[in-house]
Amino acid sequence: MGYDHLRPDRQALLGQDIEKRIKLMLGDIWVDIAPSETVFKVMNNMANVPKRITAPALLVTGLGGAGKSAIVKEIPNRVSRSEGLLTISMASDPDLMKRKEFRTEIYHKLELPCPPIHRKSSVADLVTRELSEILKLRNIWGLVIDEIHDMLLCGKVEQRINSSMLKAFLGESYGISLFAFGTPKANSFISAITETQRRFSVIKLEDWKEDESFRTFLLGVEELLPLKRPSRLYDQDKVFAILAATSGRMDNVMNLIRSAGCYALRDGTEAISLEHLAKASASPWGY
Question: With 147 labelled, which of 70, 87, 205, 221 sits at a CA distance of 20 to 30 A?
């Protein structure tokens, strides 16, 4: 039996048993798609901008599950000089039962003690000499902030602190580019920083719809699934079924396909059918 429906580097996976292939099915995969490629292209172009008065900034927005965090995870593989990027997530930690503080996250990421501040702290108090020296010593040229919309949850004093730090990083003294990812609420955060808003380019991640781009994406996904027979996810009936069950939201699409693939492995058919998609939608973990 030929396995031309799979990418050559994935075909060897078919020799593994069902349980191992189910684990592979449930793992993360990456498929190059136009929206993410646009983000990486912009980031790479910004990475090559010579130092100037104002560093470039990018805001990527999308509803929850649109694929923002997946793009952030892929940045080290797709953006030049990524070793000079400082990446933090502002997502609240459910285990700590409290929100994160931007300033604290920066210092902790660099393994520096975070000095105390007060209401009248200056920029020099917020961005200490030690922090400044570490940023230069490590050649940090860009700051990636995932879930930046969660910075709206803090009070006015902390918002002023966050605003001052971001403006300092983007300014001539540091020239650090900013790459922010968040829900559409992030626009409100950026708009609140008057001097910073005009510096941002914005890319919006939209939900999938029935078009050639989505079919191409499904073809790319199918080439990575550890199934011995082609599923033809890009056929019209399956495209409609996937969109109907997921509303085109990236995370929902991938979770549906993963679950349907597990059903196909369990029953031995080795290809995703409309029935598998229906079962996956009704009972994602019922395989």
Answer: 221
Give me the pLDDT at residue 146, please.
93
Q: CA 273, CA 101: separation in Å to the nearest integer?
A: 47
Residues 6 or more apart whose CB falls under 8 angstroms from that of 206 comprise 35, 62, 66
Torsion angle in degrees (nearest 10) through CA of 91, 56, 208, 261 = -60
Give the other-Cβ count within 10 Å of 173's Cβ.
11
Q: How far is CA 197 from the centre of its chain?
A: 22
pLDDT of residue 194 exceeding 60, the answer is no
Segments of the chain assigned to CATH 3.40.50.300: 34-204
**Hey, how many other C-beta atoms are within 10 angstroms of the C-beta on 216?**
15
What is the percent of the chain where pLDDT is above 70? Answer: 90
pLDDT in tens, 65-124: 889 989 999 999 999 999 999 999 988 766 655 678 888 889 889 888 887 776 555 655
CATH of 34-204, one of 3.30.1330.10, 3.90.580.10, 3.40.50.300, 3.10.350.10: 3.40.50.300
Count Cβ atoms below 10 Å from residue 139 Cβ, excluding itself.
9
Question: Strands, E, within 52-140: which ranges?
Answer: 57-61, 85-89
Residue 131 is which amino acid?
L
Pairing of strands 57-61, 177-182: parallel
